[in-house]
Amino acid sequence: MRVFSAATTSLALAVAASTLAAAQPQAHAHAAGILHKRDPAPAPAVEHNLLHEGCRPIDKRTRQHAHPQRRQIATSGEGDVVGNSAGASGAGYSCDATKCKLPDCQCASTSPPGGLKPSDTPMFIVFTADDAIQTYTVNAVNGFLQQRRNPNGCKPQMSYYTSLSYTNYFNVTSLAVEYNYEIADHTMTHVGDPPASEVSGNLQAINSLAGIPYNDIQGFRAPFLNYSVNTLKMLHQMQFEYDTSATSSVPVTDPNTDAFWPYTLDYGMANDCLAVEGICNGQPVLPGMWEVPMYAIFDERGAAGAHLMDPWLDSENPNDVLNWMKNTFLDHYNGNRQPFGLYSHPIHVATGYPGINDPTAQIRMINQFLDWATTNSSMQNVWIVSNRQLLAWMKNPVPASQLNTLDAFKCGTPQVNSHICNGQLANSDLIEHCISDTPGDALNNAPFYTCYGCPTTTPTPDAPVPNQKNNDNTVRTRISNTCSTAWWDPIAAKCLCTGSNCAFNDATRSIGPNGQNLTSAPTTNVAGDDPTKPRDPYTSFNGNKDSAATPSRLVSGLVSTCVGLVVVAVVSSLTL
């Protein structure tokens, strides 16, 4: 349980004040939808959409990078450029390995942790997604992962760095419960170098409207990968387990590589040293907080041709990108087996998005790469994982043959026999359908579903947990800090089980050769609404019931002290 002291409160408020001026409003207009069933498509008068805002603007999809080593800023497309760390020699990094011991401390190193030989080390493909969670993006990531199996027979997991503009909260709940994906923080409104209210507000809104316990939201990635030393200090004060905003931009084959395995910040940062002021050379000292570098993919130019997020947007020829990915992967596999990253904005590989041709060639290429990497008999011990799983292994680095001894790599499905609103698709008849009746409210053009009660207005950094009231005069109870999402009944306001009393169906199998438990047929489920059926009823935000209290993890008064700005694209009409 995270508890904030008075000293922590003061420092967090200082961090918030120092970073507030850097916040820049970002406009977003995303389409919302429940899993496998979409809400009405936006009216033609939409001024912006997700493909043009925040992430990788569509007009940059095939643009070559003029400045591949320039750090990202909020005016560039996310992933558009890669930060320069000057490599290991420029980090001024020194760590006392005799004092820095797992599981609480890890020095930055290019060698596998725990003294493992590379041949005994698992080869991890870390799969992540950023931004809003909605039907299009859920189907996109599931199309790459759900038909696959890791060597122990379990479906792969991934990490979703979630921003809230136009996110459907029931989708968030379902990703956590149905698929065991990691839900992590990406700020509320997608602002770079964010103020504290953007980060803490995201935690509170995801907890209250998606039912994700605070202790399950442990990771953070800065929008645009635009962070500062104050961002890292703020995350440490909020007791995040890790940040994953820094870049590894020197190939693993270079003696000066900065492709470090994840490390704690007990001895400062070792990445992005030339890109972010005030880090490296032993700073910042944040004991116990991990940095999980984002590992670049390189084209034939080597370090001058680094690609980070959505590399499949960086060439009109998918075969070129496939070769970059294969060559970089082989360098990692044949070396010290540092993780290989697939960092996506899944809206760019989504199908069925209104007015946009399906990116069929890119989807086929990504699946082709994953097939090659995970079913190749000459490359064993390849696992597709989340950052949460990666860190669980970093803290206890067992040989690949013993990964089944770690709970994070098992595949237990909650056995919940009661009919409760908990994110399981079989119980989706219990969800509430929310839309604002306030003129100008952002959710007029992006209604969402939730198990946990409709708010009176859109969550914002100033008010991340609005008051609740539903048209039927019922009140849904937000999740208890002592319960897991799958077992919480928000209607009855009770936890069905805790700890060892919770039953799981464990489908974990003995670890076998790569390819033994795998299938490469991609999923193409992009089902939309049936136009012959009546529209779902929505609940207006028109009440004023008391909202849930702020948890002990968050600084009391912090959100009201820090000012956040939300700018949204307005849709002229939405037919319900």
Task: Describe the SSE topology.
Blueprint: H1 6-20, E1 27-28, E2 33-34, E3 37-38, E4 123-130, H2 135-145, E5 159-162, H3 169-178, E6 182-185, H4 196-210, E7 219-220, H5 229-237, E8 242-243, E9 247-248, E10 263-265, E11 286-291, E12 294-295, E13 297-298, E14 306-307, H6 318-334, E15 340-344, H7 360-375, E16 382-385, H8 387-395, E17 412-414, E18 432-435, E19 448-450, E20 488-489, E21 494-495, E22 504-506, E23 539-540, H9 558-561, E24 567-568
Parallel strand pairs: 1-24, 4-5, 4-15, 4-16, 5-6, 7-8, 8-11, 9-12, 18-23
Antiparallel strand pairs: 2-3, 10-11, 13-14, 17-22, 18-19, 20-21
Helix pairs in contact: 1-5, 6-7
How would you describe this structure to a colleague?
InterPro entries: CE4, Glyco_hydro/deAcase_b/a-brl. One of its GO terms (biological process) is carbohydrate metabolic process. This is Chitin deacetylase. 18% of the residues lie in helices and 13% in strands. The protein has 576 residues and is an alpha/beta fold. The strands form 9 sheets. Strands 4, 5, 6, 15 and 16 form a 5-stranded parallel beta sheet that branches. A 4-stranded mixed beta sheet has the order 7-8-11-10. A 3-stranded mixed beta sheet has the order 19-18-23. The longest helix has 17 residues, at 318-334.
